[in-house]
Every structure is written in C-alpha cells, then in structure tokens.
Amino acid sequence: TMKNSVSLSAEEVKERLDKGEPYVIRVKIPRNEEIKFKDMIRGYVMVHSSNLDDKVLFKSDGMPTYHLANIVDDHLMNISHVIRGEEWLPSAPLHIYLYEAFGWEDSMPQFAHLPLLLKPDGNGKLSKRDGDRLGFPVFPLEWKDPQTNEVSSGYREKGYFPEAFINILSLLGWNPGTSQEVFSMEELIEAFSIERVGKAGAKYDPEKAKWFNQQYLRATSNTELAKMLKSDSSTANQVASFEADYLADVCGMMKERATFLTEIVSEGDYFFGVPTEFDEKTVNKKWKAESAALMNEWLVQLENISPFNAEAIEHAFKAFIETKSLGIGAVLPLFRLLVTGKGMGPSMFEIAALLGKSETVSRIKSGISKLG
Questions:
Q1: Is it the case that residue 251 has pLDDT exceeding 80?
Q2: For the range 349-352, what are the long-range contacts, defined as Cβ-Cβ under 8 Å and sequence gap of 24 or more?
Q3: Catalytic, out of 59, 119, 128, 342
Q4: Residue range of the domain that includes 81
Q5: 95 and 24 inside one domain
Q6: Is 235 found in the same domain as 207?
Q7: 27, 184, 263, 335: which is deepest, by most CB within 10 A?
Q8: Average pLDDT of the chain to the nearest whole number
Q9: Quick check: 265 pLDDT over 80?
Q10: Domain with 364 in it: what CATH number?
Q11: Phi, psi (rounded to 5 degrees) for 347
C-alpha cells in the first residue's frame, strides 16, 4: 500500500520529514463530487471525482509537474482559451478541479478538445510512420530528430503554399456549413468558429491536400509565380538567366498542369533548355519511317511564318495538314516531340511562339537528326 500522510499517523509523517526522506506532494481529490465543465466542442462534460487519481503536483526534487505548472502558468498569463487535442480530455477534470481549488474558477479559460487526425483510411490515429509509409509529410517544416538524426519531411519543403496548408488544416474537423472549400485567410478568419468543429476524428486525405495546393497555384498571378521561381532555392538556378516576362508566360502555360511550383520547371524543362531525350512511348507509337521527311516539310512552312505568333503558327499548321490530307494526331505529336521531348503538354503553338522561330526550327532540325 502507498505510504503517505493519509495512511500514516501525524507523528510518523513528522518523523519521516525530520529524517529528510524524499516525498512528493499530491492533490487530494474529494471522493463524492461531480466535476462538471463545458467544452466548446463536446458540450457539457461530467466526471465523478471517484474516477480521478490523487495526482502528484510537486515531485520529490521540488519541481512542479505539468498538471500544476500548466494551471498556474495559464492563470498568470490570463489565457482565455485552452484548445488542444482530445487526448487531453481525461486530464481536463483534474485541471478544472485545480482551478476551483485555487479559487480561480471565475477567471478559468474556456476549454475546447479537438478531434484526432486519423489515417487516410480512417482506422486509427495518424502518425509519422503513416506519413513515411504513404509518402506525405506530417510536420509543417522539415524536422531533424536530435537523438537519431533522422530527417522527417515538411510541407514547406515539399512545396505547399502556407495559405494552402492553413486551408487544409482548417477543414480537418471543421465544417463551414456550406460547400465552399477554398478560403482566403480573411475568409477563414470570418467563417471559422470552434463551435462548428465536430467531435468525430478527421480523416487526413493527402490527395485532397495536393488538390488544395493546386487551387492556390492556379489562383496566383503569373507575375507572382515568376518571382517565386526566381527566389525558391529549388528552382532559382535553373531560371536565373531568364527574364521575368518570359517566366510569367511559362507559368501561364504550365500552372494548370502543375500541383507544385517546382513542377512548372521540372515538367516544363524544355522552356529552359533543349531536350536531351525524347519520350519513348511517343517515339515508339508515332515516329515512323516517313516522319523525318514530313517534319522537314513542316519546317519549311514554319520558317515562312511571320509574325511568328501562336495564331499564325496554328493557321499554318492547319493549312499544312489539310494539304497533306493528314489528321492532327498524325503530325502534332511529332512537332511536340521534336521541340519539347514530351508526349503531352500545353498548346504547341503557344510553346513554339514563346521559344521563338530560330529556337523552334533549330530543335526540329536537331531532333530529326537524332531520331533519323
């Protein structure tokens, strides 16, 4: 049995103290009381005091435990709201009792216990291991464990916009009561209320998180995206020698196809250099024995286009395939392959116009000689 001032006589307690025996100080919870409080999410919560332990408040070295320090600290700092995960719900009755024991119930903060974040399949609490296994971060920023030196990926480093990340977090457990999903920070501040947060655990959907980032990317102006490409450490070197206007045009073409800023450069690498390889699938499917001759004929047409803009290129292309009695699908993929190395992408006429006549012609000649 536990030896303490409840089970020992006053004399024995004094004797042990005089001997300098180490001791802890506990809270003595009354046995027949109902401890009630109102949670902003869960409504009224009532716990019978007989279900609570006499928790340690001061350890034997004189240091206060979390339970005591937390209450005193929040009181002295005039904390108005304690918003935390539902794993703290079992500790709340003790905290409420301590506020009352100190006579601080009138200035006690409001409590809100948020629902847990669940794995994408909804079975159990989301953990770092789930993120590692399924390939998504669980930390806002990249984090290195000082003990193991293990590095965990972060949303910032993965290329998520801060605003998109906040939007994602806001909808984990909270429901605006409308079908709106994308919110600006101002709209979130206006719409958000703790009372509309649900009690049930919130499933985390990594694919939906990417969708949110995509929405923010698309909504950002081309000029702003171009600035970001210049300043982002993962893209700055590749785009350093290109003008802001050129980059803005690239962003305009690529942002509908990208989820992350870096994909504008990785998927649109042909805007920043001559392709060194050609999409194997397209080569196997589309590049035939007569393709080189066909592309040489198209080259002649291209060289005569003036002014060299998307509209004029498209007009010339349509006239060319009509003359040759060929469908778009027989010629356009070859044009794209030689200029970009890819099997798909934005409008080929816009790409060619942005690269300019001499660069487009040069790439077609080079591609023909490589593919033969």
A1: yes
A2: 349/310, 349/311, 349/313, 349/314, 349/317, 350/253, 350/310, 351/253, 351/270, 351/271, 352/302, 352/308, 352/310, 352/313
A3: 128
A4: 10-114
A5: yes
A6: no
A7: 335
A8: 94
A9: yes
A10: 1.10.10.350
A11: -55, 125
